[in-house]
């Protein structure tokens, strides 16, 4: 398919980029599971590497060739829209600093049972609402070595644009799925032999410095929401509680920073 030069923003094929929210993309017409936005050539490359299919690509004129190269054989069927920066900024509502964005079909989320087979170190995010923190946690998981991430129903969507951008595309590399309430999730993890270690400011918490994560072959690190921390239901479902020792009267770290410290300490 030849490059499509944009000169009319009313083209209905551009609707995926026209000031569309993440929520609207998730409900996009003509899709089975909705869409998400991949920003930059690096993230598009990782999305394609994960087997995700683009509906279209929007590129600045000088990045169109790079987009076609990344698409490979898909370039025969996936439209690549090209235009000047000011026109694309008018369309999207922001400047394409990274040269291109792509509207990607969301994949069907895998089953939790399927993901947990063979996993040793996992992360559970309970109600982490800030997509920036979600993205940063995924990046740490990809770098330090969590096998997968489970997210609760009220956790921010890892496919939101900001989460993907902050994660540098590792949201598309680290396997993840959603889980249900704590009764079902506790039963699920017990079935797969996981010891749940919660990170929380609790009176009975063990210092992470003295906690031996290697004693557990299958370990789940549980992280809670910014500010409120873990719910009572989450703490009740946990097998042990740990905390990161702090200095200078500081009681805790941002959840994304704390996740990196705890993942490294518990990597086994």
Description of the structure:
With 268 residues, the chain is an alpha/beta fold. It has 2 domains: 4-105, 60s Ribosomal Protein L30, Chain: A (2-Layer Sandwich); 112-265, 3-Layer(aba) Sandwich (Alpha/beta knot). It has 10 helices and 12 strands. Strand 3 (54-60), helix 3 and strand 4 form a beta-alpha-beta unit. Helix 2 runs parallel beside helix 3 (64-71) and helix 6 packs parallel to helix 10. The protein is elongated and about 65 Å long. The N and C termini lie far apart (49 Å).
Report a brief summary of the structure.
This protein starts with a strand and ends with a helix. The chain is of the alpha/beta class and 268 residues long.
Question: Main attributes?
Answer:
268 residues; alpha/beta; 60s Ribosomal Protein L30, Chain: A; 2 domains; 7-stranded parallel beta sheet; 10 helices; elongated
- Globular, elongated, flat, extended or rod-shaped: what is the shape? elongated
Terminal CA distance reads 49 Å
Low-confidence stretches: none
Q: Which series of helices and strands comes N to C? A: EHEHEHEHEHEHEHEHEEEHEH
Instruction: Give the helix proportion (percent range).
Output: 25-40%
Largest sheet: 7 strands, parallel
Q: Please tally the helical runs, counting DSSP H or I stretches of 4 or more residues.
A: 10
CATH topology of the largest domain: Alpha/beta knot
Counting DSSP E segments of at least 2 residues, the number of strands comes to 12
The CATH superfamily of the largest domain is: SPOUT methyltransferase, trefoil knot domain
The CATH architecture of the largest domain is 3-Layer(aba) Sandwich
* Largest sheet, spatial ordering of strands: 8-7-6-11-9-12-10
Number of domains: 2
Beta content: 15-25%
* Class from secondary-structure proportions: alpha/beta
Mean pLDDT: 94
The gyration radius over C-alpha positions equals 21 Å
Name of the CATH first level of the largest domain: Alpha Beta
